[in-house]
Amino acid sequence: MNLLAKVVTAALFVGGPALMLVLQWRDFAVTWRFQRRGQRVQGKVLRVDPGKVDDNAAVHYAFCLPDGTVLHHEYSETSEDWSALSPGSPLEVVYLPEDPRRSRPMGTGIGWVRTGFWTLVMLGFMAGGLDVLLGP
């Protein structure tokens, strides 16, 4: 295998999956942080923007901190369908007490099953790429 083929193989089958693993585990760490340290409060839906072809739907919501401060946020990181919500609907929100500017609707984020599945898939790609690179 020539040098160019090795570089392309390494980029596609080792570098790409490694980057995907880092991003997947980073998202999982954020979800875990919200689950472990997040404060739950009742929020209110302000509006829902339907998703376009390549965009996720966005839910705009507001919630009050214990000191009475009202925060307005938007969440569109998942492909969830928020169309069942209408302005004024209650929405359970979780925020980080050390940084209330970071919040999300309760129950969103990436779980163990999805993270584990994609970890196995990406490790398989990486193993195949290394086998091709280091093979005879």
Features:
136 residues; 5-stranded antiparallel sheet; DUF3592 domain-containing protein; transmembrane; transmembrane helix; membrane
Distance between the amino and carboxyl termini: 9 Å
- Give the beta-strand count: 5
Task: Pick out the low-confidence regions.
Answer: none
Taken together, the total number of domains comes to 1
Helix content: 40-55%
Instruction: Kindly report the spatial arrangement of strands forming the biggest sheet.
Output: 3-2-1-4-5
Strand share of the residues? 25-35%
- The ordered H/E elements are HEEEEEH
Task: Give me the secondary-structure category.
Answer: alpha+beta
Mean pLDDT: 91
Q: Largest beta sheet, briefly?
A: 5 strands, antiparallel
Shape: elongated
Computed Rg? 20 Å
Counted by DSSP, the helix tally is: 2
Organism: Corallococcus llansteffanensis
Transmembrane segments: 6-25, 111-130
Protein name: DUF3592 domain-containing protein
Keywords: Membrane, Transmembrane, Transmembrane helix
